[in-house]
Design goal:
Pfam families: ABC_tran, oligo_HPY. InterPro entries: AAA+_ATPase, ABC_Ni/Peptide_Import, ABC_transporter-like_ATP-bd, ABC_transporter-like_CS, Oligopep_ABC_C, P-loop_NTPase. One of its GO terms (molecular function) is ATP binding. This protein has a single domain, classed as Rossmann fold (3-Layer(aba) Sandwich), CATH 3.40.50.300. The chain is built from 9 helices and 11 strands. It is globular and about 70 Å long. It has 332 residues and is α/β, with parallel strands linked by helices. The longest helix is centred in the middle third of the chain and has 18 residues. The structure holds adenosine-5'-triphosphate, iron/sulfur cluster and magnesium ion. Adenosine-5'-triphosphate binds next to strand 2 and helix 1.
């Protein structure tokens, strides 16, 4: 499978010096062409910071301390995202990688019709396109996200939250990007709506071929709609696997805890245990495995040696885990 985005050794801090919050730590992550990659983890684990980091949209005092992000266009040379100029970056963000933020549906301008807003996006990036062609494109995009032509001239307040979110997806797709990043909030969208939106995105990518990075707390949603899942804890990716395999058998005890925090999709009912304890303080991380204070299976190396993400010793092809239960102790 071809890679569309390659993140290597990414570290993102808020602030500098002793007081810096190291929100993303040594992240290696690959997004493949046309796949849906789900990113899950408790609140504060660094999911949004990762999304902002790779699109270079970090709010101050966020800084990328180290790492590289490489974008691989369909044809042409790989692009070093960290080296793009502001102008190149603006184009990159709409045309190659589009991001739909938490609460994006509220960022539509209330005083303009949705058709106007969509046409503006197209016009800004395709100045040579004729007006009728732009209008046709806008119609087509709205149709794609399930909004009929007679709603085009509505104002945002005349649409439901779900429809506004679909308009945002339509805008994100306006320039046929290769990557769509969607960052869902804890609270703003209910699960039913998230489900519809992710279902629709998954279907659209079948037709249009873009890759999706979908961020959510709702692991059950990811199990259902994504190809692969990455789990974050304390700023690190702690497990990565094809969705079905992760659901069948989590390797990392934290993933296991997350899976037991929602009802089984099918099969026997499981006890909903959740994960006791609370996420680590990023300013004062526990030594060793950051999860060890909460881990029911912690053993000798866990409280002073960091398990790095890598292939499990017990042979699960295509999977990675950062846990001493599955990493050979010789790799220390
Ligand atoms: P949620 O699921 O709640 O959206 P998240 O996984 O997206 O959480 P982030 O928003 O990336 O988490 O935050 C990661 C860490 O960085 C948190 O500890 C948070 O407090 C910290 N953080 C986020 N933004 C800032 C900021 N502007 N300044 C300082 N620290 C920040
Ligand atoms: Fe638990 Fe140790 Fe694995 Fe960390 S490394 S998840 S503490 S068993
Ligand atoms: Mg977030």
């Amino acid at each position: 499978t071809q890679t569309v985005l390659e993140i290597t050794g990414l570290n993102v801090d808020y602030g500098v010096g002793d007081q810096a919050v190291r929100a993303v730590r040594d992240v290696d992550l690959t997004l493949r062409r046309g796949e849906v990659l789900g990113l899950a983890g408790e609140s504060g684990s660094g999911k949004s910071t990762l999304a902002y980091g790779i699109t270079r949209l970090l709010p101050p005092p966020g800084v990328i301390r180290s790492g590289s992000v490489r974008y691989h266009p369909v044809d042409g040379d790989p692009v070093d995202v960290m080296a793009l100029t502001p102008a190149e970056l603006r184009r990159f963000r709409w045309a190659e990688t589009s991001i739909v933020f938490q609460g994006a549906m509220n960022s539509l301008n209330p005083v303009h019709r949705i058709s106007t807003q969509l046409l503006d996006v197209i016009k800004a990036h395709e100045p040579d396109m004729s007006a009728p062609a732009r209008l046709a494109r806008a119609r087509e995009l709205l149709k794609l996200v399930g909004i009929s032509a007679d709603r085009m001239d509505s104002y945002p307040h005349q649409l439901s939250g779900g429809m506004r979110q679909r308009v945002m997806i339509g805008m994100a797709l306006a320039l046929e990007p290769q990557i769509v990043i969607m960052d869902e909030p804890t609270t703003a969208l209910d699960v039913v709506m998230q489900r519809q939106i992710l279902g629709q995105l998954a279907e659209l990518r079948e037709r249009l071929g873009f890759a999706v990075l979908f961020i959510t707390h709702d692991l059950s949603l990811l199990v259902e709609f994504s190809d692969r899942i990455a789990i974050m804890y304390g700023g690190r990716i702690v497990e990565e696997a094809p969705a079905a395999q992760l659901y069948r058998a989590a390797l990392h005890p934290y993933t296991e805890g997350l899976l037991h925090s929602f009802p089984a999709l099918r099969g026997p009912r499981r006890a909903l245990t959740g994960i006791p304890g609370s996420p680590p303080d990023l300013r004062a991380m526990p030594p060793g495995c950051a999860f060890h204070p909460r881990c029911p299976r912690a053993f000798t190396p866990c409280d002073n040696e960091l398990p790095v993400l890598g292939a499990p010793a017990d042979d699960h092809p295509g999977r990675s885990v950062a846990c001493w239960l599955h990493r050979s102790l010789e790799s220390r």
